[in-house]
Amino acid sequence: MKQTNRKKILYVIPLLHQGLPLSVRINISQRTQLIKQLGHEVTTFPYRGVWSLRGWLTLFRHTQQIDILMIRIDGSCIGDMYTFIKLVRPQLRIIWEVHGFPEENAPTERVILRHIIKKYLRMILSLLVDTCTYISDELRQFAKPRLFAKHHVVIPNFISIKSPHFSRQESNLPAALRKKIKHKFVVLWGGSPQFPWQGIDLIGQLSAYIEQIDLEVIFVVIGKNSWYPLKQTRNILRITNLHRPAYRALLNRADVCIALYNKPPQIPFYFFPMKILDYMYYKRPVIASAFPVLSSIITHRSDGFLVQNTVEDITFLIMQLKNNPKLRNSIGQTAHKTVATRFSDHTARQAYKNMLNTVQK
Hints:
Largest sheet: 6 strands, parallel
Number of helices: 12
Strand content: 15-25%
Radius of gyration: 21 Å
Order of helices and strands: EHEHEEHEHEHEHEEHEHEHEHHH
């Protein structure tokens, strides 16, 4: 794609190691590729050396060759520190790609001193920022009173349809896994269970309740380092790691996918889960917690289901879908259409184009 106003962008991101959730790695890759498709030059710069002179000198050398510094910031607040480069490169335009705040990691409503320090340091640094982007309107509403950037833009998460991560080609399930779920009604949960807002505890309650009703239903949970000690039982199959091709095959095999969440104690639920788009793209009917941000993705009983996190309500929907294959298929087809039309890179491309044009002015 030709670009008359080509910009050089340095994209500061977390170090892309295997411990980083796959959804984060995919998200970074998608955003990088999309900006490149708009005709800009993008170089990624992993978080490193934020407390060392050598790291800052490396960053300074990079920023001598760029027009825009784009920083992915989250609840760790590590990326925030790179904003200080503006003090020695005042002509540099800075974009914060905001994904979260330190308070999201608080286990209770008790105020934690380090969160207060990070909050006010971020607030001060935001005076140097031109534009903040957010993955949801709920996050924008929470962040805007806490940040002093000039512009605030919502660019939701999206799926890159041509990416190999979202290939529609058939993949094979590992034989051992295929055997364990044979003749079962598979309810799938995949994600990063280490975060306390992930409703892993609800799966434990659900499995115990449904076990008394229907032994054909099996919950398959993908992910490691769970905050909740979910036990493997006769209707819970826990898998700590599954390569993406095998996971795609499991998505195609699953009958229902669930996306259940807990309300964090100190923040609104402002997350925009990539896994819901993943489920919907692969035509799976999704049962999700009825938080406002999720209702901006899912229309109840049209392309998915929204619930109030009660075991009885979720069980009712699972059994209804189990007994009605036509409903599963209808919801899944509509879900795929929703993602392809509203949450694809085609939609995100225009949002990025508009945002970058604003920053350049």
